Amino acid sequence: MLVLTRKAGESVVIGDEVVVRVLEVRGDVVRVGIDAPRDVQVHRQEVYEAVRESNIAAAAASEEAISALQGIVRRAGAPETTP
Predict the structure, then answer these.
(1) What is the pLDDT of residue 82?
(2) Domain coordinates of the chain in residue numbers?
(3) Which of 26, 34, 68, 79 has the fewest CB atoms within 10 Å, measured from its CB?
């Protein structure tokens, strides 16, 4: 981890296209601005983790869904194959 000291108005450049600027420091609160291309996603960590957990939960197949799908496949029968 790179640790830097910056004052209000100073910046850090990440790669060629991302600039992180310290906008304001008040006590133990620091406001930062992030200038990044539109295709670069920027999230607060707690939001990123919530979205990630939600995506994992949505992608996980429940036992009920698996059983229902197996029933549909059984009723439809195996597709015929011709050589």
Answers:
(1) 52
(2) 1-38, 43-74
(3) 79
